[in-house]
Amino acid sequence: MAFRKTELSGLGFDPFKKIGRDWALVTAGTPDSFNTMTVSWGQAGVLWNRNVFTCYIRPNRHTYKFIEDSEYFTASFFGSEQRSALSFCGSHSGRDCDKPAETGLVPAELDGCVTFEQAELVLVCRKLYSYDLKEESFLTDDGIPQQFFGSDPYHRAYISEIVGVYVKE
After folding, report:
1. Pairing mode, strands 50-57 and 156-168
2. Which domains does the chain have, with CATH numbers?
3. Rounded Cα gap, residues 156 and 142, in angstroms
4. How would you write the pLDDT of the chain (169 residues) with one tens digit per residue?
5. Which stretch of DSSP H or E encloses residue 63?
6. pLDDT reported for residue 10
7. Could you tell me the pTM of the whole model?
8. What is the per-residue DSSP string for the chain?
9. What residues contact residue 125 under an 8 Å CB cut-off, 6+ apart?
10. Is 94 in contact with 38 (CB distance < 8 Å)?
């Protein structure tokens, strides 16, 4: 499958739909050693005069080590026909299975990063800044920590510059 490099500004990218409803795969590592996971939390916008994408990864996720060790990662968006693959990648660990083999997703390389041939839109991201979410930093008392964290560790946020935008040809 071929991808064409383009500009994000001309795509009508709706982060509320693409991230929150359609989900994405965040993939880090090299073509020889990578992991991917489904994300449904994130932001896209402008920070420090750069187009940025922010994703959140818990430190107990297998992808965490890959994203920590990588300068770049991809955020890949798919059509509805890949919903079951994204569901699988969000509920199974790459420690225990080969996600591409299990889902039929075919790894592809863009700018030295891993994405998948079935992706319709790929953001190549370069990490700029990270920080850890903390319970004591919540400014409201409306149950978010209890609802979303419980005994799970808090996420690390990765604010990343979008350095490449690709669409399926």
Report:
1. antiparallel
2. 3-168 (2.30.110.10)
3. 21
4. 699 999 998 899 999 999 999 999 999 999 999 999 999 999 999 999 999 999 999 999 999 999 999 999 999 999 999 999 999 999 999 999 999 999 999 999 999 999 999 999 999 999 999 999 999 999 998 999 998 988 889 999 999 999 999 999 9
5. helix 62-69
6. 86
7. 0.95
8. --EEEE-GGGTT--HIIIIIIS-EEEEEEETTEEEEEEE--EEEEEETTEEEEEEEE-TTSHHHHHHHH-SEEEEEE--GGGHHHHHHHHHS-TTTS-HHHHH---EEEETTEEEETT-SEEEEEEEEEEEE--GGG----SSHHHHHTTTSPPPEEEEEEEEEEEEE-
9. 53, 72, 73, 74, 75, 158, 160, 161, 162, 163
10. no
**Structure token digits, residue 166:** 């690709």
First to last CA, the chain: 8
The pLDDT score that the predictor gives to residue 163 is: 98
| H or E element that contains 36 | strand 33-39
Predicted confidence at residue 1, as pLDDT, reads 63
